[in-house]
Design goal:
Distance between the termini: 8 Å
Shape: flat
Number of strands: 0
Strand content: under 5%
Number of helices: 3
Helix content: 25-40%
């Protein structure tokens, strides 16, 4: 998979942030949501933080990937 990096020009014009994207009590970050879950894996199986894995899997599925191979390709 090829990732494109976009460089935005620096301007003196202030950037207006959409107020819908500001954190509110109703919105929580995806890592926060998964960090409250207990990690039931054995110590030998804990290579990565569970909250990060669940967040990445959720993003992969949200992006339209179905199945382990598709999710793995998306993550790679």
């Amino acid at each position: 998979m090829v990732l494109a990096v976009m460089h935005l020009p620096l301007t003196s014009t202030p950037v207006v942030i959409d107020s819908r994207l500001e954190p509110t009590p109703e919105r929580i970050e995806i890592l926060e949501a998964f960090s409250d879950l207990p990690d039931v894996r054995r110590a030998a199986g804990k290579r990565h933080h569970m909250a990060l894995c669940l967040a990445l899997f959720t993003l992969a599925v949200t992006a339209g990937n179905r199945g382990f191979l598709a999710i793995g390709d998306w993550l790679a």
